[in-house]
Specification:
Helix content is 5%, strand content 37%. The chain is mostly beta strands. The chain has a 5-stranded antiparallel β-sheet with strand order 6-7-2-1-8. Strands 5-3-4-10-9 form a 5-stranded antiparallel β-sheet, with no helix packed on it. The longest helix is centred in the N-terminal third of the chain and has 8 residues.
């Protein structure tokens, strides 16, 4: 029988993506908050993002099979289409957004967003939970039938 040689323990990390989404309410109504931890910023954007210099561009799609994807792209503060980020505790950042589809009344706690794909320093794709996915466009809505 061959000998068993133990190896030292190597931690694999927490397994969390560092991206989250939640629904909050205030006097103005409901809002969606997307949060990014400092470690996720460094892993996917190459460095910690600065609220005074950086912004993010978000893209959603309402095509069948693609409505679960949220794309985040790094941009410079002030660029057209880029959304300002707010700093948080321990180097985290967040963005407050208006809901893009009707949501049930009330709050929803932060839910982790799984990373689908992404390159460092440029863009990343995240999987949205069911409640945050935009409704799928039906045939004849917004596109000519022959396209």
């Amino acid at each position: 029988m061959p000998p068993i040689i133990p190896r030292p323990f190597e931690p694999t990390g927490t397994g969390k993506s560092g991206f989250s989404i939640s629904v909050g309410t205030n006097r103005g109504g409901q809002h969606i908050r997307v949060g990014i931890t400092q470690s996720a910023q460094e892993a996917h954007f190459g460095r910690k993002l600065s609220p005074t210099e950086d912004a993010l561009r978000l893209e959603l799609n309402n095509d069948q099979g693609k409505n679960h994807i949220l794309k985040l792209k790094r941009a410079k503060e002030g660029e057209p289409g880029a959304l300002s980020i707010a700093g948080g505790i321990k180097g985290s950042i967040s963005i407050k957004l208006a809901p893009w589809s009707p949501l049930a009344q009330g709050k929803r706690p932060a839910t982790e967003l799984a990373v689908i794909s992404g390159s460092t320093t440029n863009a990343i794709q995240l999987k949205l939970p069911d409640y945050a996915q935009p409704s799928v466009r039906k045939i004849g809505e917004g596109k000519p039938l022959m396209d």
